Amino acid sequence: MDNIRNVVIMGSGCAGHTAALYTARANLSPLVLEGHEPGGQLSLTTLVENFPGFPEGIQGPELIENMRLQASRFGAEYKVGHVSNADLSKQPITLKVGSETIQTRTLIIASGASARWLGLPNEQALIGHGVSSCATCDGFFFSGKEISVIGGGDSAMEEALFLTRFATKVTLIHRRDQFRASKIMLERAQRNDKVHFMTDTTVEDVHDPSQKEVTALKLRNIKTGKVWDHPTSAMFLGIGHIPNAKMFTGQLDMDQDGYLKTTNNVFTRVPGVYACGDVQDRRYRQAITAAGSGCMAALEVEKFLEEEGH
Fold first, then answer.
1. What are phi and psi of 21, to 5 degrees?
2. Which residue out of 2, 14, 87, 137 is catalytically annotated?
């Protein structure tokens, strides 16, 4: 019996589910490995208002569940687990998932990128209730309010500048007195009247889970040791993301931050291996672009298997 899979999809966010839907409809019986963050970034989001087709918006976890049900309906198989090891050097590709070894002719890497969090006591309880790692997703909900952005690099400057469209004031909080951001991004932020800078300051905690919303940040000045509460309606993290691609180090091309490098949107340097969604997209990181790249990867898998005679 041939127990080599036609296609394995790593990840169960928008990119993974879309790839599963397309490959399932092509009768390729995809196996989806859900990963260590099933549902991806959307499962941490409350209301999604920018995904086409939902005029009233839809809850992030509900959108993900709908995608999963749709792919399952056409025969996609889902399995809890994430890839700890992969050998892409020969066909079939070999994946280690827990104690199991899985072989596959093609692989779609849709393992996403995990937001860097601060690890504060109340942080996780307030994700989706004022704590966010995505300004373009959640900025609109804080129109007319004062909000805070954490970080000192380009992504923090970008988040802060984008949020000035909605907020009355954006306080950018950074633990050092120097910024990692490029000169052009820093100057752009400094020129904006709505952006205020607070340096040499760390966030100790975020209030208030009992009210199910962000009301203030507990801050500490690292030079003076002074601790105080800074009133704010939201805390946006601009400290980057970590692509979930470590298991491919040395086998696939990555940039300096660990994002997979692709050509023609989804091709890696290994034939039959494709990458889509946030694991290779550091620029857009939207549900709709992830879904689009998942579709592309699936169509390329179909073409690859056809050409290989499977």
1. -60, -50
2. 137
CA gap 92, 82 in Å, rounded: 19
Q: Answer whether residue 254 shows pLDDT above 70.
A: yes
Give mean pLDDT, residues 248-252: 96
DSSP letters for 230-264: EE-S-EEE-S-EEES-GGGBTTB-B-TTSPBP-BT
Which residues have a Cβ under 8 Å from the Cβ of 97 and sit 6 or more positions away?
A: 33, 79, 81, 82, 83, 84
> pTM score, two decimals?
0.82
Is 276 a residue of the active site?
no
Marked catalytic residue, from 2, 14, 87, 134:
134
Instruction: Report pLDDT for 1.
Output: 36
Cα distances (Å, whole numbers) of residue 164 to 49, 143, 168, 195, 301: 19, 9, 7, 7, 42
Has 138 been annotated as catalytic? Answer: yes
pLDDT higher than threshold 60 for residue 63: yes
Tell me whether residue 295 is one of the annotated catalytic residues. no
The 3-state DSSP class for residue 67 equals: helix
Catalytic residue among 138, 154, 278, 281: 138
Going by pLDDT thresholds of 50, 70 and 90, the confidence category of residue 2 is: low
d(CA 199, CA 307): 57
Q: How far apart are CA 18 and CA 291, in angstroms?
A: 6
Mean pLDDT of 37-49: 78
Helices (H), the chain: 14-25, 60-73, 135-138, 154-163, 183-191, 287-307
| 82 — pLDDT class (breaks 50, 70, 90) | confident
Output the CA–CA distances (angstroms, integers) from residue 184 to 1, 10, 176, 282, in the order listed.
Answer: 60, 37, 19, 19
